[in-house]
Amino acid sequence: MKYHFFLLLVLFSVFGFSQKSKINLKNIEKDLKNSASPYNYEKLIFKYKGYPKSLDSIEAQHLYYGRNFRNDKISTTDDGFKILAEAFKQENFEECIKQGKILYDKDPTNLDILLVLLRAYDARKDGNNFMHHLNQFRSLTEGMKNSGDGASEKTAYLVNSVGDEYILLNILNIGKDYTRASKTGKDGMFDIWEKDGNQLYIKILYLDL
Asked: Is 32 among the domain residues?
């Protein structure tokens, strides 16, 4: 499924002003696996599922970037996601919700799955579920946005995937009039988006796990 497909779904304002925080992926991995840590995965996912608005930026970043250290992630190339995508394409929102719930239970911090569920719940006028998943989406994407300011390689925004990069670009209102250049970096690939001499750096993480 093409990533720009999801950009049409992000039609709402997501961010306020928050402090940027430097991402330490090694510490995030340790915290998530440490049962005594306040950032332990089970503690955070319980909070995320129950009351996502209560997550602070650091907690959200642990959940978002912690996906790199999990073995149960669902990819857009997986069969289950292809079924979900086809239901969305056919505007079969009842089936979207059915399949989306199954995938969400397996991979609750997957932004692509959240976006499909948001569209489906919106189409079904299910305000409660829509707002719940919207708050989850906001928490995760705010954590992503607060990873940097995009002004340089050292302060580049960090994203987990190309799909997440395009979600971020849509939120930042970076459009088709920008040109893109790419270069390799440690543990990832930099995309440099440029317009009128202004550059925006986004690093797509490719960790050797």
From this structure: yes
